[in-house]
Amino acid sequence: MARAGGNPGVWGSLVLLGVCGCTVARAAALNPVRTLRVEAQTNSSINGIRCIRYGGINETQNTIDNNVTMGGLDPGSSYECSVWAEKNGVNSTWDMLNHFTAPNPVMNLSLVTQTNDSITLSWGTSQGPDFQGYNYSVQCTGNGDRSETQHVENTSITIEKLEAGTVYSVSVWANKNGVSSFPKTLNTSTAPNEVTHLQNESLTNSSVTLTWNPPDGPYSHTYTYWVHWASEEEPQGKQDPVGHGAKSKAKTNESWYEVTALRSGTLYNFSVWAERNHVPSSIQSLQVPTAPVAVNIISCISTSGGYGVILKWSCPSGGYETFEVEVGRQRSTQDGSLCEKGVSVSDLSPAQSYTATVTTVFNGLRVQSISMTCNTESTGVIAGAIVGTLLLFILVGLLIFFLKRRRKMRQPKEVPKALVSSFPGDILAKDFAEHIKENEKDSNYGFAEEYQQLALEGQGQSQMVALAPENTSKNRFRNVLPYDWSRVPLKPRHEEPGSDYINASFIPGLWSPKEFIATQGPLPHTVSDFWRLVWEQRSHTVVMLTNCMESGRVKCEHYWPLDAQPCTHGQLQVTLISEEVTENWAVRDLQLFHMEEQQTLSVRQFHYLAWPDHGVPYSPDPLLAFQKVLRQWLDHTMDGGLPIVHCSAGVGRTGTLIALDVLLRQLECEGLVGPFNFVKRMRESRPLMVQTEAQYVFLHQCILRSLQKSAPDLVPKEPVYENVASLIYENAAAIRAHDSEVSASGC
């Protein structure tokens, strides 16, 4: 035991207070100390006289005061302290007290993550000789100095139900044996709420203006906003608000930003987030294209004797997909690779001026060029020469006529042995029976020879749109594809590649280059496109020349309602109003209702029931009667769009009926008829029109039968000769077996 007045030890201190009692006269036994208590403790000290750590070494100190600090103790440890009084070598009895030193503070208090309503923290355990028995208190103080304390056993915590974009002070301390360490404090913030209603306000070919609403919460005026963008060609990569991998980034205090110096005709990915107290919110993203650049029309050169032009334009800077070419009323969509190469536009008139424009198309955005006036070359000199020649022939003819009149009593009347044509291929009505008679010789050799000349007509023209991967499944047959220049486009839908495609072509008529629309019978997945075609063309007439099922095979999807229950296809609702069925055809009145536009369109369907696929009807008479009914309807329905005609492929029966209607009107108006020439014209617009030789022969038989009714002295023959080599090839990917063709609704 150290003597009184000795130096204090180097241990930590425990402050112990006591009152000593003693007798002065003699060395009698001393009274024990009274009211022994701990006044203070640290993680390494307890005040007292003698302290023994359980399981450790004891230490004794002497003092003349009634308190003492025992230093150098272990943190978070239990100690037994004894105090006694000593005088003149006599000790009082001991007074003992058990107590604990405080734990060390937690280590490495850090932020793990934060959201708009939570903060996650972690820390290391307190250092000390014994790691057992610790728990931790976490106090979070935020808005209005409101605080909340939680207790955990682990060294991490997620504090939830916090306010977004708010700074919080978080204190953490260790507890052991009821004694707490000093707190460690970290100031941090929750993330702001994300911006809302991010949208494209406006765009040009080099800029995009974005707007958004500030995040919800009371701090909307204190936010900073970051805008990040990258093109599809240069992906954003990691969408990191800090900026790693970013292509371009800017910040603003406003709730809008105009991004400039962008590439035209390019799809960009935009990201916007809010920031407060250097903490970012979640990201809002938007994809916006820049507009393409308008082209410059370089030249417009008249060709084909004034019946067409070759239009050439520059390639615009930036990106583009297609070009929409318009010369007068001739419109077509051209591939993007055709700029600076020249595109032929036909079906124009000589000696005319046409306004030409080229519209650049990218991602649904259209920018029209400055218009140019195209002048087709004059055929006046040629026409004058023709007129002069005709006048000369007329004068010579009149001279011959008068000479013959003077000698007609002496000379027999000659019957012409050669055919007389006003134009090559056009046959006078009175010579048509002789023309058929000549072609029927040697097993229809003449018809076979004519038809063979039509075999390659129209081939080699571009069919790129029909062959696009997104469109191939929409074609019923692999080799019946519309030509790009004459196809009927649908209105494209945003972000739907191929939504403007349907297997349909414009077909010329008697006086117009676009008098009919020929299309295939709808497939199950193209019925909606078929009705879109009817609606967009504002057509009041649909002509159907096939049955839905023929010889056990599906030839056409049943696209109209079976009864009064309407069918819905996309935005269009189709209702059957009435139906009249005869032996050879049916007439149905239908009504289309556009549910978005709230408008209606009346449609009449003429359905011929007695025409076999590839073959021909047994007699011309029923078809002639059908054509007469159809023509009467068309002549009285002048306000609508073009009639839409289809069979299965939209070429064989379709081509034969269109040719019959046009040629009978030519016969009536001009007194001549040109089957070969007109079939040739149709095949320039759509392949395989009048698909088989038998149909070509039948077309002549129908015309002859019509002539026979008005001229009984003509006695026609009705041969049927089918060339089965001219077939079409089914698209197996588009046609599948359907056990049930009609749904429960009858659609």
List keywords for this structure.
single chain, 747 residues, alpha+beta, Immunoglobulin-like, 8-stranded mixed sheet, 5-stranded antiparallel sheet, 8 helices, 17% helix, disordered C terminus
In short:
By secondary structure, this protein is of the alpha+beta class. It has eight helices and 44 strands.
Describe this structure in words.
Helix content is 17%, strand content 32%. The strands form 12 sheets. Strands 34-35-43-36-42-41-40-39 form an 8-stranded mixed sheet, with helices on both faces. It has 5 domains: 15-100, Immunoglobulins (Immunoglobulin-like, Sandwich), CATH 2.60.40; 107-189, Sandwich (Immunoglobulin-like), CATH 2.60.40; 196-289, Sandwich (Immunoglobulin-like); 297-375, Immunoglobulins (Immunoglobulin-like), CATH 2.60.40.10; 464-710, Protein-Tyrosine Phosphatase, Chain A (Alpha-Beta Complex), CATH 3.90.190. It is elongated. It is α+β, with helices and mostly antiparallel strands. Helix 6 (652-670) packs across helix 7 (675-685). Residues 1-28, 235-246, 408-424, 715-726 and 737-746 have low confidence and may be disordered. A hairpin with a 2-residue loop joins strand 22 (267-276) and strand 23 (279-280). The protein is built from 8 helices and 44 strands.
